[in-house]
Structures are given as structure tokens and as C-alpha cells.
Structure to design on (552 residues):
């Protein structure tokens, strides 16, 4: 007897179990209550309540959960009013059959209802292309156009020679400030400054490493001040000081030797002297200065001068060496 | 019931609304309801029309809290132009960093579309290689040196380079982009300003001073 009651109780418990959500099947009104009759009558909700000596009057009737909002949505609705701002994923509001999650064996990813992964990941539902276009149309009023005359890089360089580079940081952290944000880099092309030859050479010597030979760019990186504006002002101050210093003519600059020269000058060099003396000796002893000038201004001499200057300044290469060879041959009439 | 035709002008209606809202409870104004909520019943129209007809401060009807909201009263903020010259940016490079590549993909689409809509030149959009920071830690709190656990933190990057922007456009675009930056994503913006040579560098100062002195003498 006890066994049979146990058995029936177990059976009845199975039937009741089928009423609730098993494997995600939504509870349907058909399954409420007993599915088939047994010897032991399955107690209904009402019986349970009265057994517990609770009055049925105070008990609120159980409400059905409302249908999700997705059922009432039309296909041509305005989506930007459903998700106007960034909001977490709401399965009852997004009418898409999305599944997310690692599936069990021979299973599928989990559905969107109650899916934490979908809630965790940042969504872009508020930034659909239509919404972006609407917002940009509203923002276009505040934008200005780039001047059409400044279409090429060369023109930008010509009119705006100074370039200032700054970095901003947007991130989440214990502090809003980033120490790298104060670094300011100022770049100028030396040829755009109003300097003569002497000034230019002096500036390059003073700048040292900050000057790039290939691009002829002068770069100042200022980060010694705590604020970006201060660093910018300091960089401009450096440029001003450098410019003025290189425009000055100091008395001790006259003592510049050949070793200090940046580029090779043929005018007062040993090469010129040697060439002239060799030629004079070749022609035999004649009167001094006039033929000297003639020699210097003669075409083979000029060619020789060019080739030697090229060789020394540009470095050794096939073309320069060939040029040098030709000029020597012409000079010595070989 | 047809609505009475003795209507006051729009502005006066708004003024009246404002006045009554200040002093008394909310009023049900037929005219505004017709404009905004077509589904309301028209049974009250007789009362209101009489009210306007008499143009006396006769007792009004307090309705069940229909909010005569002033959405229509707000005017869009007018745009002011200042004398300050607009700055010019040679290029603006936006580097976004995040742990999830899919989020960065979506953000890239958003940023590029926004740039196109605002008429900004996009130079290049590319993905710098990711950086993985790996840690090897002891698994247990105490001893068991041979058993460790390894973690890695991946940072994915996306770089969007724009060129030839004005200061206003850059500010607008960057503010829009940054307000919509998703959680867990960081951004670095590198801007290159274009500037003219300042006045004091065009010529050495002593030249200008001597010119001024000559002028003063004259």
C-alpha cells in the first residue's frame, strides 16, 4: 500500500513536472493541472491554498506575463525611437532571433531570452545607419568646409609652414588625466624661414639632432612643462630664439676653418691650388696672375671644379667618378 | 461638436497656456490636443469654446492631468559665429583600442559612416597588429610551484586617419565619436595643426626695431 502510494505520488509528481518549463518549452495552458487521472487525485492550486488556511479573498489572481513588445512592432517602425541612446540588450524589445553562447554537445547556442552574454557585450543598436545619418544631418550645421584653395600638400606647406602635433586620450581609469597628453611636437621646414646661407648653416649646426637632413625638417618635442599650452609656447619660444641666434653674426665666426665647413667649397681649397699649379707647370713658366684667372675661368677647369665638388658633397658613386675621370682627362688634354 | 472658430492667434494661445500653468492647474486646450493627440475625445470642446468666446476669466475645467507639455515651445539653439579664425588640421588620427575585435569592427563602421556623412576626407583605415600581454602565475596560494596558470590580455587596435579638417568640423566629429564610444574601448586622438609663421619670426627683431626707430625719428 505504501509502495503504491509512493508510486502514484511519484507519477503525479512527474505529471506536475511536465506542467513547468522543461528544456525551455514555454508553459502552455493545456498542460496546467493533471495530464491524466490517477487513483490519487492531483491537488490543484486552490486546494493547496485552502489547506494552508489562507483565505482565497486576499489572494491576488495570478497575472499572465504580457506579450513581449516585439509582437506589436511593425516592420516599418522608427527604430531610432526604440533605441535612441546606448542601452543594454533587451530581448523583449529587439525583434531579432539572436542566439549567443557556446552550445552543449549536439545543441545550439542559447536563445536571447535571459542571455547574459548578449547583455554584457556593448551593442550598437542605437547606431544604425539610419540613426547615424539623422544625427549627422543635424550636426552638419556646425561643421565648416576646408578651404578649396588648399588642395595640395605643397600649398599647405607654403602658406602654413609650421605643424604642431598634439595627442588627446579618452579612456576609463582612476584618473582622467594622462601624462602623455602634454607632449607637443613642433615641425618646421628650414627653407620656409627667412634666413640667408650663413644663417641656415648656423641654424643647422645649433639644432644638431633635431634637424633632419633628408627632409630638411626641424622638430622640437616639448614636454618639460605640465600643461600642453605651456609646452606649445615653449616650442615657439625655442624656434624664435634659434632663428634670432642664427641671424646674428658673432665676431668669433670668422675663425671658421675648413674642418668646420658643412659642405665642400672649391674656391679656396687645396684641390684648386694643385690643379692650377699643375697646369701652369705643364704650360711652362709664364707670367703669373692673368693666365691664372684665365685658367680658372676656362671650361675644363670649371668642369673639374664641378666634378670634385660633386664627389665630395654627394659621395662616391659610378656617375660622379665617371664625371671626375672625364673632367681630369679634359683638363690634362689626355 | 465642431470647434469654435473664434480662435486667438498661436502666440497668444501659448502665452495663455503659460500664464494659466503658472497660476492654476493644467488646462485642457483643445487646439493643442488636436495638433498632437488625435485620439482624444471631443466632448469637452463646448466648454473650451465658450471660454474663449467670452474672453473672460471664467472658471475653467480641471482635467485629469493631461500634460500640456511644452515640447513645441523649445526652439533649436541658434548657431553663433565668432570672430576667432578657424584652425586647420592637416590630419587627425583616431586610434581605438579594445579587447573585443567585433566591437571595434562595429565602431569602425560607425566612425567611417559618420565621417562620410559629415563630408570628411578619410585617408586610411587599417588594423595595426594586436598586442598580447601574457602572465604566468602560481595556481595555488601556497607552494605547488610546478602548477601554474596562464592568462593573456589581448588588445586590438583600429586606426582611422582623416585629413584636411577644419577646427569646427574636427571638434564636432570627435565629440560625436567620443560620446558614442562603447564601454571597454579606449581612444587616442593625434591632431596635427597647421599654423602660419608668427610675426616675430618673419624678420629678426632688430630689423623691425630699427625700422620703428627710423619712423619715430621721422
Amino acid at each position: 500500500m505504501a509502495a503504491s502510494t509512493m508510486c502514484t505520488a511519484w507519477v503525479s509528481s512527474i505529471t506536475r513536472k511536465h506542467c513547468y518549463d522543461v528544456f525551455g518549452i514555454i508553459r502552455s495552458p493545456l498542460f496546467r493541472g493533471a495530464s491524466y487521472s490517477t487513483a490519487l487525485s492531483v491537488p490543484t492550486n486552490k486546494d493547496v491554498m485552502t489547506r494552508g488556511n489562507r483565505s482565497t479573498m486576499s489572494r491576488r489572481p495570478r497575472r499572465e506575463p504580457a506579450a513581449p513588445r516585439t509582437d506589436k512592432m511593425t516592420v516599418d517602425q522608427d527604430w531610432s525611437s526604440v533605441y535612441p541612446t546606448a542601452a543594454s540588450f533587451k530581448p523583449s524589445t529587439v525583434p531579432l532571433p539572436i542566439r549567443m553562447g557556446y552550445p552543449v554537445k549536439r545543441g545550439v547556442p542559447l536563445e536571447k531570452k535571459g542571455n547574459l552574454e548578449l547583455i554584457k557585450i556593448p551593442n550598437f543598436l542605437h547606431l544604425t545607419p539610419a540613426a547615424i545619418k539623422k544625427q549627422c544631418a543635424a550636426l552638419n550645421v556646425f561643421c565648416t568646409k576646408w578651404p578649396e584653395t588648399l588642395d595640395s600638400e605643397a600649398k599647405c606647406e607654403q602658406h602654413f609652414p609650421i605643424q604642431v602635433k598634439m595627442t588627446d586620450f579618452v579612456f576609463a581609469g582612476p584618473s582622467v588625466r594622462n601624462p602623455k597628453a602634454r607632449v607637443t611636437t613642433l615641425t618646421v621646414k628650414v627653407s620656409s624661414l627667412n634666413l640667408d646661407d650663413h644663417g641656415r648653416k648656423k641654424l643647422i649646426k645649433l639644432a644638431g639632432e633635431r634637424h633632419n637632413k633628408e627632409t630638411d625638417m626641424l622638430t622640437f618635442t616639448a614636454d618639460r612643462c605640465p600643461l600642453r599650452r605651456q609646452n606649445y609656447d615653449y616650442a615657439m619660444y625655442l624656434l624664435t630664439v634659434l632663428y634670432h641666434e642664427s641671424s646674428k653674426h658673432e665676431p668669433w665666426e670668422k675663425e671658421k676653418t675648413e674642418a668646420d665647413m658643412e659642405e665642400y667649397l672649391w674656391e679656396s681649397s687645396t684641390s684648386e691650388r694643385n690643379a692650377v699649379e699643375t697646369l701652369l707647370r705643364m704650360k711652362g713658366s709664364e707670367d703669373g696672375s692673368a693666365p691664372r684667372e684665365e685658367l680658372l675661368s676656362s671650361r675644363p677647369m670649371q668642369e673639374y671644379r664641378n666634378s670634385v665638388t660633386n664627389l665630395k658633397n654627394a659621395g662616391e658613386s659610378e656617375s660622379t667618378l665617371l664625371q671626375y675621370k672625364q673632367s681630369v682627362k679634359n683638363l690634362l688634354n689626355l | 461638436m465642431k470647434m469654435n472658430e473664434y480662435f486667438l492667434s498661436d502666440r497668444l494661445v501659448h502665452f495663455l497656456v503659460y500664464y494659466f500653468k503658472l497660476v492654476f492647474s493644467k488646462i485642457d486646450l483643445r487646439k493643442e490636443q488636436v495638433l498632437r493627440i488625435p485620439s482624444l475625445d471631443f466632448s469637452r470642446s463646448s466648454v473650451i469654446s465658450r471660454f474663449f468666446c467670452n474672453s473672460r476669466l471664467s472658471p475653467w475645467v480641471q482635467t485629469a492631468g493631461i500634460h500640456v507639455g511644452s515640447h513645441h515651445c523649445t526652439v533649436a539653439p541658434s548657431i553663433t559665429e565668432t570672430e576667432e579664425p578657424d584652425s586647420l588640421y592637416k590630419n587627425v588620427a583616431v586610434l581605438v583600442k579594445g579587447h573585443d575585435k567585433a566591437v571595434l569592427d562595429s565602431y569602425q563602421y560607425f566612425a567611417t559612416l559618420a565621417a562620410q556623412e559629415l563630408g570628411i576626407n578619410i585617408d586610411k583605415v587599417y588594423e595595426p597588429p594586436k598586442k598580447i600581454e601574457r602572465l604566468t602565475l602560481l595556481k595555488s596560494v601556497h607552494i605547488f610551484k610546478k602548477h601554474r596558470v596562464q592568462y593573456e590580455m589581448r588588445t586590438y587596435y583600429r586606426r582611422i586617419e582623416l585629413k584636411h579638417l577644419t577646427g569646427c568640423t574636427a571638434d564636432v566629429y570627435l565629440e560625436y565619436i567620443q560620446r558614442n564610444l562603447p564601454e571597454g574601448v579606449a581612444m587616442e586622438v593625434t591632431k596635427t595643426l597647421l599654423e602660419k609663421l608668427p610675426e616675430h619670426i618673419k624678420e629678426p627683431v632688430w630689423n623691425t626695431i630699427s625700422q620703428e626707430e627710423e619712423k619715430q625719428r621721422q
Observations:
- Chain A touches chain B through 46 residues (CB under 8 Å).
- Residues 1-31 of chain A have pLDDT under 50 and may be disordered.
- The beta strands of chain A are 162-170, 184-189, 211-212, 217-222.
